[in-house]
Amino acid sequence: MYDVKAKKVKMKIGQLWENFGLLFLFVVVVIIFSILSPTFRTYYNFANNFRFSSLIGIGAIGMTFCIMSGDFDISIGSMLALVAVIGSSLIPKIGGIGGVLSTIAIASFLGFVNGVFIAKLKIPAFITTLGMLFVFRALAFIYTNNTPVYIQDKFWLFMGNGKVYGIPFAVIVMVICYLSAFLLLRKSPFGRYIIAIGTNKRAAMLSGINVDNVKIIIFTLLGFFIGVASVVTSANLGSANPGLMGQGYEFQVITAVVLGGTSLKGGNGSIGGAFIAAMILTYFKNGLGLLQVSSYWQYIAVGLILILAVTLNRIKYTLLGQVEV
Amino acid sequence: MSKIKYLRVALIIVVSLMLALTFTLAGCKKEAAPEKEEEEVAEEAAPEKKITIGYSLWTMEYTFFQNLEKGVRDACTDLGYEYVMIDQNSDPTKMVQDMNSLVGQGITGMVSTPVDPGAIGPAVEAARDAGIPVVCADIGKSGPVNALIISDNYHGGELAAEYLHELLKDDPNNTWKFGLGNLKPQWTYARERGEGFRDKAEELGYEIASEIIVETASAEGGFDTMQQIISAAPDIVGAFFSSGREAVGAANAVEAAGKDIMVVGYNGDPEELQAIKDGVLTATILQQPYLIGYMSVEILKEIIEDGAEYEDAVVPAPVKLITPDNLDEIAKELEEKRGQPAY
Amino acid sequence: MIKFLKLYEKFGIFIFIVVGAIVLSIASPHFLELNTILNIITQGTYAAIIGFGMTFAITSGGFDLSVEAVMGLTSVFLAILIPVVGIPSAIVISLVIASSVGLINGLIITKLDVNPFITTLAMMTIIRGVSLLVAGGRQIVISEKSFMTIGTGKLLGIPVPIYITMVLFIIFYLILYHTPFGRHVSAVGSNENSARISGLNVNLVKIAVFVLISFTAGVAGTIRTSQTLIGIPTMAPGFVLIVITVTVLGGTSLSGGRGNLWGTLFAGIFISMIYYGLNLLGVQIFYQMLSVGLVLIFALFIDGIRTKYLEKIKAKGIKV
């Protein structure tokens, strides 16, 4: 009798954590830093952080799909730099809007290439993208002969710095991306396919899902979102540097996705979680900086919060009585 | 279960609505705000002038940047300014985010040592729009900065070539060949050091027999690169590395290979001075990060307090040659300035 | 044909080395010199040594991103300890500290059940922060000249790091292929659940593997430190990617269960040959990155074809 009751309570806590845990964590982070730092709690800083969380946030959408289907992509940082330098160098020829569109198109194509290598040639995603990490970065250097491309175009810059009714345009872009990704994942057959493949690839194949095609689409989508992220990032920086853009980006994005509750074993994932996680990470780092915490302690704090979050995630599953497969 | 799900969706919507509301409200307020803010600043400025300097720094991982930071900090203390520093952690996007944060904090003046000098443009613009002067301390600049104080990197390279020539010109074994170890091409400021060395060396009649980029930006990377340079051009008599740690590694590689090659570095970090003292490294070019940091705050002072006009100015910071002869003298000087042992 | 394919699985990367060596010796007059070849091998050993540990980790289904941070940590502790306790004890203590990072990794992975990728990613930043704190953000100069022997000394004309690598290789080879522990590592990697059901202490195996890889990172860190005589808290930035490349290129399967130590050794030398050789030719650094990436994809592409072919003839009923 007691056991059942205790179990029920545990279930409740687990459910609460699953549904509101990250939001709660985010609110806690914001409140703590707001109390400690007068700068942190200004509107200006809040909007600024929101804007910069979109750089990781947009990339995290595609990565969530990817990790949910049981794969990985570590080439996105190099891809970010490569498409940014190509796209922004095209501006004089085809204008800002054309540049933005072609950046996204090229990124989607590169994602498509990754997908074909992985699905058709059966090279594991990790290795393909590890190879591409070198290749993309090298191509970015070769294409520009290692000179940064400065971006003057109004439209392109608006993608990162513009404001609509006081809301940073980058944030609007991110929200649109997230809404469409959410609909895609929860309301379309494609979303079900991703989950099916991530949970059990063989079973998905046997049930008639064309696994190869779904994978190619996933990587193409990832490329698409990286393309968008690339435009927003380079717009914020006002330039595209082949060597410096996107260094370590892949790890930041994966951190956000995992912190958001997506299981690295595939199948289980949360688009909304990645969104909030990207915000948590950005606000957390900014807050530590504003509080004048030593850089060395910042490294340690960021590492610890990652392990802590993933551990809490595990505890959640235990409370829910589920064993993560 | 489904109830909770709806609740969650509802909560997310509520939170986003609240956020949107804050933004719109703040957005409206902002349009009216500027005049008021200026008034406030003017009012506050009259009775008690409180000047805050914000510093956005590349990284705290290396001695060079630590000394830069100390220079900025000491200058602020000496002038009675408040001081805020945010570390970019070598990440260009964090750099822009933090610089915007500093602008939002209402600082009076900004110093920046950018990891990606090409990417500070928008952030500098935002600062200038808010009436905050920006001075770049070393590395480089973009956008409407008031001033850039940067080591005379090209001249530093020239000094290295001249000193090697000085030592070698009467040497009967001089083969008139040098090696050159560069940093990765994205660090543009370091490229100039190599160019300065190459131009001067060629002018003096030397040939750059092998020029290789250091793959791993660390002392052991310099070790590897020197091994490669020795293989590619075994008969060189001197080599220049455009960064100090790498040069120390390179000098060790020369020793390990049993060769007689003189290595000159660039930076003047403690490990280089120690290596010169031990006779491993031949010489190094001393940059003066502490001075650069200090000068950048002094320029801000001129702009803020004295109303001096600085627009897109480039102030070269002098570099010095450190050889075994003047090592003690310079070390003493550095110690006095930094308040800590030079090596 | 089948015999050839079997051989390719083990020594495939060796073919790459031979082809690469022929091309480079034609292109560069300095390539076929004893010193150059010894240097290439030596520079290949750094990645290969950690690659041995990584081979174990990947074979057991794990992963370690924290190796470069461990190198830095070892380096800092060496620089601090050598003046205090002397060279031999400093090395021992530093290696113990390095290994204890692996112990922490292993404990977090097994006891808290956190994914190895995330654990070691987090540990990478944590350890880097710790090294910087311990070193006070400075590079610490080591004044004990004799410490240099480990990284730069020569015995019978061959650099000491090559001997160290050989010893480690033999030990790891024996462990992986000729001890129960090695079989356990493979068993855990190919199917963790069935390994657990058959009574294996899976957690212990995993912890041991992570201690091993951190130990190898410590050894590499020691060699690198002795070459420059500086304790560097931020040693070898980005090196972990090279280590993983070397391990995977060597033929260790990412799906676990199949490790190839020969491959790791040769792949380390091969990658070093690409960088060294192209530098001798004065090729720009971009093209080195490009070739490493392309070689990796190409090698795995060939490997995929090979596996498919073997499956095909297996389906025909021919014993492979």
Helices and strands in order:
The complex is a heterotrimer of chains A (325), B (343) and C (320).
Chain A: H1 2-36, H2 43-68, H3 76-119, H4 125-144, E1 149-150, H5 154-161, E2 163-164, E3 167-168, H6 169-187, H7 189-199, H8 201-206, H9 211-237, E4 239-240, H10 249-259, H11 271-290, H12 295-319
Antiparallel strand pairs in A: 1-4, 2-3
Helix pairs in contact in A: 1-11, 1-12, 2-6, 2-7, 2-9, 2-10, 2-11, 3-4, 3-9, 5-9, 6-7, 7-9, 10-11
Chain B: H1 2-45, E1 52-57, H2 63-79, E2 82-87, H3 92-104, E3 109-113, H4 121-129, E4 134-137, E5 147-151, H5 153-168, E6 177-182, H6 188-203, E7 207-213, H7 219-232, E8 238-241, H8 244-256, E9 262-267, H9 270-277, E10 283-286, H10 289-306, E11 313-317, E12 320-322, H11 327-338
Parallel strand pairs in B: 1-2, 1-3, 3-4, 4-5, 5-11, 6-7, 6-8, 8-9, 9-10
Antiparallel strand pairs in B: 10-12
Helix pairs in contact in B: 2-10, 3-4, 5-6, 7-8
Chain C: H1 2-27, H2 34-59, H3 67-85, H4 87-111, H5 116-135, E1 140-141, H6 149-152, E2 154-155, E3 158-159, H7 160-178, H8 180-190, H9 192-197, H10 202-228, E4 230-231, H11 239-249, H12 261-280, H13 285-315
Antiparallel strand pairs in C: 1-4, 2-3
Helix pairs in contact in C: 1-12, 1-13, 2-7, 2-10, 2-11, 2-12, 3-4, 3-5, 3-10, 4-5, 4-10, 7-8, 8-10, 11-12, 12-13
Commentary on this structure:
The complex is a heterotrimer of chains A (325), B (343) and C (320). Chain A is built from twelve helices and four strands, in the order ααααβαββααααβααα. By secondary structure, chain A is mainly alpha-helical. The longest helix of chain A is centred in the first third of the chain and has 44 residues. By secondary structure, chain B is an alpha/beta fold. Chain B folds into two domains: 128 residues, Response regulator (Rossmann fold, 3-Layer(aba) Sandwich); 134 residues, Rossmann fold (3-Layer(aba) Sandwich). Chain B contains eleven helices and twelve strands. In chain B, the strands form two sheets. Chain B has a six-stranded parallel β-sheet, with helices on both faces. In chain B, strands 7-6-8-9-10-12 form a six-stranded mixed β-sheet, sandwiched between helices. The longest helix of chain B is centred in the first third of the chain and has 44 residues. Chain C has one domain: ABC transporter involved in vitamin B12 uptake, BtuC (Orthogonal Bundle), CATH 1.10.3470. Chain C has 13 helices and four strands. In chain C, the strands form two sheets. Chain C has a two-stranded antiparallel ribbon. In chain C, α2 packs antiparallel against α10, α4 packs antiparallel against α10 and α7 crosses α8. The mean pLDDT of chain C is 88. At the B-C interface, β7, α7, α8 and α9 of B face α2, α10 and α12 of C.
